[in-house]
Each structure stands twice: as structure tokens, then as C-alpha cells.
Amino acid sequence: LATPMFADLAGDAQVSFEFFPPKTEKMEETLWESVQTLAPLGPRFVSVTYGAGGTTRERTHATVARIAKETAIPAAAHLTCVEATRAEIDAVANDYWDAGVRHIVALRGDPPTTGAKYATHPGGYENAADLVAGLRKLHPFEISVAAYPECHPDSPDSGHDLDNLKRKMDAGATRAITQFFHEADTFFRFRDAAAAAGIDAEIVPGIMPVMNFASVKRMSAMCNTAVPAWMGHLFEGLDDHPAARQLVAATIAAELSRRLYAGGVRNFHFYTLNRAELSYAICHLLGIRAKPALQEKAA
Ligand code: FAD
């Protein structure tokens, strides 16, 4: 409490941003406005998700390729093992390599039917670790993988989940990006457990700026992410007050980021949901400022 708010931030934080591929022209416009707003902050990379069951294969590719072509930011493509053979996935990865994309976020993915048990596609990659090993054989990609501070719902326990993360790292992943979480201590406990399990690669916290509390509660339940009572209390009565809600959302995400920074975190990954404002504000509070040269390029 002795340090004034955000005064201890030295401007040495680095960020990355995650987007999803747009479905309509309007969504495409929103995405590009967001990319142009966030690009001058000089993110380490931006990544584009891959829809369930490979449904966005073309759109993910088009979005990543456009970012790679039109901005100075390294673009990463998410890729999953769902509903595809190894040969099909390898072909997608080869297309990325040929388009100049050097970073893949390698994931197992979820079953196409919500709630169903995951089954490996005949002739497909078995899981994310298997996909990482496959990608490594193809090209010297930079590879990020997923990590779960509160344990993946399919995992019997956190020890099993950490073993799985270690397998992904040993297969050749560069870093892990975490599922979103709401308490800084959740991340710190996980970081310590990962270190104790011999995982020394970078673990980047995934920050989800919560705008719509009801939908975040739904998503959190699906991902095994605990929603603290204080969060419900902070969003109480704000359903019809979008502007106030946005300020509260920014405060919560900024406070989480500040605590993470105070605990030694310097790299942050933002789930932007294709909206720039909240992520931009939090980056600003973290001491990150637009770089004039990148601003000109974005314009
Ligand atoms: P894995 O690491 O392969 O494992 C998932 C679980 O299965 C773990 O609990 C593990 O312990 C268990 N498991 C794996 N292999 C075995 C084995 N051989 N035996 C026993 N248990 C095993 N989904 C998308 O569809 N598209 C995206 O773009 C996307 N992006 C994401 C980005 C991030 C940063 C994160 C955190 C998640 C993302 N997801 C995405 C969600 C992800 O696909 C799901 O969480 C999925 O259920 C697990 O994927 P994974 O790569 O973590 O799987």
C-alpha cells in the first residue's frame, strides 16, 4: 500500500494479443480497427484462434496472412488436432510456413460435440504433445502451447496435467500460455508447481478482460476456472450500465495484471475478443506506450 498505484511499473512489460477470425464483414472491420489500435504498442506477437473442429481453417489462415502482410507484428496461427489426419494438419502447417508464418499455437482442441469425450481422429495427432512433435519435424516453428493453472477439465489431477505440459515442452514447445484465471495467486501457485516439475520454459498468463460477467461465468464453468465471489459482487447491478461496467472491468483486469507484475511477471497475453479498448488501457497502466514508428505503420 506504500507504493502509489501503478507507480512501480518500469515499462518493461511485454504483451501479446489474441484474436479470433471474423465471420462477417462488420466483424472483420472491428478486428482490423483493433489490430491497428493495438499494433503501435509493439506486441511480441499476435495470435489468431482456430475454430472448433477446424471450422475456421480458411478464415484463420486469411487473418494470420493479412496480419503478417500488413503489419510489422509477428503473427501466430492456432492449430488443433480435431477432425483431421496428420497429413491434413501438416498441409495446413506447410501453408503457414510458405506464407511466412513462423509461430504456431499448437493445441489438441475440443470434441466437436460439446460435452462429448475427446477421441483422436483416425490417422490424426493424438494430442497437443504429439502435434508439437509433428510440427517440429516439419519446420523450425516457434511453438506455444496451452497450460491450465486450475487443471484441464479432462485431467484427473494437477500432477497429471503438469506431466502433460512437461511432455509438450519436451516435444519442442517454446512457451506455454495459460487459460484465463481470476486470481493472481492461482497463477503464482501454478508457476511454482511447474518449476518444481522441472518446467523451465516461459509461462505467460492469459488475461481475459471480463466485460460480460454472465458469459465469463459460463465460460469459466466450462474451463474449470473458479469465479471468486468478490467478482460477482463487483459486477452486481451493472447489467444496464455498460459504460460503468467497462470501467469496472478495466479496473479488475488492471489490478490482476498489476499483481502479476509485482510477482515478477513481465510477459502478458491478452484475450482481446477482437476489441482493443480494454487491452489497450491495461497495457497503458502496465507502462506500455505506443511507439511512434509503429503508429505510422498502423495508420
Ligand atoms: P492437451 O495438452 O493435449 O491435453 C488436454 C488434456 O488431456 C490434459 O488434461 C491432458 O492431461 C489430457 N491428455 C492429453 N494427452 C493424454 C494422454 N495421452 N493420456 C491421458 N490424458 C491425456 N481451442 C480451439 O479449438 N482453438 C483454439 O484456437 C484454441 N486456443 C487456445 C489457446 C489457449 C492459450 C488455451 C489455453 C486454450 C485454447 N484452446 C483452443 C482450447 C483447447 O483446445 C482446449 O482446452 C482443449 O480441451 C485442450 O487442448 P490442449 O492443447 O491443452 O490439449
TrEMBL record:
One of its GO terms (cellular component) is cytosol. Its cofactor is FAD. Pfam families: MTHFR (PF02219). Its EC number is 1.5.1.54. Gene3D superfamilies: 3.20.20.220. It catalyses: (6S)-5-methyl-5,6,7,8-tetrahydrofolate + NAD(+) = (6R)-5,10-methylene-5,6,7,8-tetrahydrofolate + NADH + H(+). SUPFAM superfamilies: FAD-linked oxidoreductase (SSF51730). This is Methylenetetrahydrofolate reductase. It comes from Sphingomonas panacisoli. The lineage of its organism: Bacteria, Pseudomonadati, Pseudomonadota, Alphaproteobacteria, Sphingomonadales.
